[in-house]
């Protein structure tokens, strides 16, 4: 028996050595390594040759050949484990990013991130995050970044936790930021620090400091610690996505293992997680992507490399208390279990532009933007921040132009105050020569309950919880606002002159604002732009942009408008 076991072990070692020699031989022949002479006569299996041939092709000077190699690798689903690992260890960063952005690529192409350095003695992730934040430049910052930074550095966990119901509303999620702390008590201080670091990461030189001070590794440690807390992970991905805007940091981001993490996140069934990953990977992919996606600009389709020609852009702009994803969910989402939603996106979707519209019009690039808004200065995200519609429109216009908006035909889709932003953006773009393509390529606009002539929302300050101190955004919606009247008059003249196609929807049901106010936010007369069809819909202000189902009139009429307005562009 002992002799038989020895024989089996010896045979196994012999087969293993034989396989290793074949791999070395293939490497020598195809990558011209120093072993070429030694192993020049060794027989190599075809399937092993294929791996090395693809690796060699992926490093070709011919861009088309490189793209073909990545596509062939991504379509390989019958390889042995060691073949995927061979590619993972031998491919260059450009190929790795390409595989991460390929829809069907196997996750075995991606090595686990390198081991993280141990924490300093008597330290914690919270303390190291504070130290990272303190190491960032504190000069020449706007007031809000200074405020975020000083608050994060000065407050203790106990005092932060005591601020429930406090002063914050982050990320356009429409919920008081501090209220979310009850869900993640252990992550309270980290969240404040992360919010400050997100703002710092919008400044290129600060990204250099984050990388130099070990931020990529520290953020990865936090990401792993808070796997059950998506809000923490999304803020971390925002930082990495912002850092990826700086091409000189790409090699550091790849070396630290973030591509592997993003490749897995991109395959998530949760739209927000996948979209954050898609943004980061697109910013890393300079092989096929020329645009840069700044913080708050998310491509909902296509999120992967694709051979589908993209012929037009559809842009989604949310309104007060909205967000890039939740504003555009299907109606009655709270009553539908996530498991059922994931089973059949035709029956329910958490973001209908990404699922229904992308499927119905695959030749579109679909972008949704996110910006911070608040109903009340009492809950404003930054006490020093007073962002007018004019300020926000310039900020968003700059970000969208960096994302290549204007290079293709455009349809704008907006809800509530988002429609005022669209109007202001187009008027501002018409005055700037560098934005002329945005005007030239704008084909049409859909307005979902946009208060062109003001909203009664600004008149209500009776509910101490929501409108004790109406925010600047709400004040600008006042019916007697001179700025709002000038915007309406100027845009109506502009839209008629450019012969823009316009479709208006308006709610007919009142909306509950908090527990005390029941308000018809945008009445029919205010939603009437003066051109285009005006269609009343029997829903409230929040649901006017949330179709009940795919075959509902609200979605089908929207789809019809897009197809008709872009008919010539989609045919070409």
From TrEMBL:
Annotated GO biological process: phospholipid biosynthetic process
GO cellular component: endoplasmic reticulum; mitochondrial membrane
Membrane topology field: Single-pass membrane protein
Gene3D superfamilies listed in its UniProt record: alpha/beta hydrolase, Leucine-rich Repeat Variant
Keyword terms, alphabetized: Endoplasmic reticulum, Lipid biosynthesis, Lipid metabolism, Membrane, Mitochondrion, Phospholipid biosynthesis, Phospholipid metabolism, Transmembrane, Transmembrane helix
Membrane recorded as keyword: yes
Coiled coil: none
Keyword Transmembrane helix listed: yes
Record's subcellular location: Endoplasmic reticulum; Mitochondrion membrane
InterPro entries the record matches: AB_hydrolase_fold, ARM-like, ARM-type_fold, SERAC1
Job of this protein: Facilitates the transport of serine from the cytosol to the mitochondria by interacting with and stabilizing Sideroflexin-1 (SFXN1), a mitochondrial serine transporter, playing a fundamental role in the one-carbon cycle responsible for the synthesis of nucleotides needed for mitochondrial DNA replication. Plays an important role in the phosphatidylglycerol (PG) remodeling that is essential for both mitochondrial function and intracellular cholesterol trafficking.
Cited PANTHER family: PROTEIN SERAC1
Family: Belongs to the SERAC1 family.
Protein name per the record: Protein SERAC1
């Amino acid at each position: 028996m002992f002799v038989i076991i020895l024989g089996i072990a010896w045979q196994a070692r012999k087969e293993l050595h034989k396989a290793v020699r074949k791999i070395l031989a293939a490497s020598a022949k195809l990558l011209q390594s120093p072993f070429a002479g030694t192993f020049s006569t060794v027989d190599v299996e075809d399937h092993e040759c294929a791996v090395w041939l693809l690796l060699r092709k992926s490093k070709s000077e011919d861009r088309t050949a490189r793209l073909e190699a990545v596509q062939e690798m991504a379509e390989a689903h019958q390889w042995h484990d060691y073949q995927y690992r061979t590619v993972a260890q031998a491919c260059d960063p450009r190929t790795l990013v390409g595989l991460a952005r390929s829809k069907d690529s196997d996750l075995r192409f991606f090595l686990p991130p390198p081991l993280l350095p141990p924490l300093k003695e008597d330290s914690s992730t919270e303390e190291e995050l504070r130290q990272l934040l303190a190491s960032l430049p504190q000069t020449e910052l706007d007031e809000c970044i200074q405020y975020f930074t000083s608050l994060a550095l000065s407050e203790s966990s106990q005092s932060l936790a005591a601020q429930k119901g406090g002063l914050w509303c982050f990320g356009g999620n429409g919920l008081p930021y501090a209220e979310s702390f009850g869900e993640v008590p252990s992550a309270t201080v980290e969240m404040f620090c992360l919010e400050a670091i997100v703002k710092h990461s919008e400044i290129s030189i600060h990204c250099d400091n984050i990388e130099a001070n070990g931020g990529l590794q520290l953020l990865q440690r936090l990401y792993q610690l808070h796997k059950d807390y998506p809000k923490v992970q999304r803020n971390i991905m925002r930082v990495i996505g912002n850092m990826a805007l700086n091409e000189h940091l790409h090699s550091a981001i790849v070396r630290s293992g973030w591509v592997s993490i993003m490749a897995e996140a991109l395959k998530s069934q949760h739209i927000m997680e996948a979209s954050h990953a898609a943004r980061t990977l697109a910013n890393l992919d300079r092989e096929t992507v020329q645009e840069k996606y700044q913080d708050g600009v998310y491509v909902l389709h296509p999120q992967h490399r694709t051979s589908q020609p993209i012929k037009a852009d559809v842009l989604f702009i949310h309104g007060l208390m909205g967000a890039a994803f939740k504003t555009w969910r299907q109606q009655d989402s709270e009553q539908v279990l996530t498991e059922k939603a994931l089973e059949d996106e035709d029956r329910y979707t958490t973001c209908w532009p990404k699922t229904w519209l992308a499927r119905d019009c695959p030749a579109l690039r679909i972008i949704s933007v996110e910006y911070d808004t608040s109903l009340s200065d009492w809950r404003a995200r930054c006490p020093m921040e007073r962002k007018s519609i004019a300020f926000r429109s310039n900020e968003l216009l700059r970000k969208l132009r960096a994302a290549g908006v204007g290079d293709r035909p455009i349809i704008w889709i907006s809800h509530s105050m988002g429609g005022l932003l669209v109007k202001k953006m187009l008027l501002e773009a018409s005055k700037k020569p560098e934005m002329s393509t945005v005007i030239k390529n704008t084909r049409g606009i859909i307005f979902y309950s946009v208060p062109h002539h003001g909203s009664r929302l600004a008149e209500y300050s009776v509910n101490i919880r929501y409108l004790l101190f109406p925010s600047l955004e709400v004040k600008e919606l006042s019916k007697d606002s001179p700025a709002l009247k000038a915007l309406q008059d100027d845009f109506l003249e502009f839209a008629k002159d450019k012969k823009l196609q316009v479709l208006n929807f308006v709610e007919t049901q009142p909306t509950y604002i908090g527990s005390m106010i029941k308000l018809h936010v945008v009445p029919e007369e205010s939603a009437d732009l003066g051109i285009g069809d005006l269609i009343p819909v029997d829903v409230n202000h929040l649901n006017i942009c949330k179709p009940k189902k795919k075959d509902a009139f609200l979605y089908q009429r929207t789809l019809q408008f897009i197809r008709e307005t872009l008919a010539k562009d989609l045919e070409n």
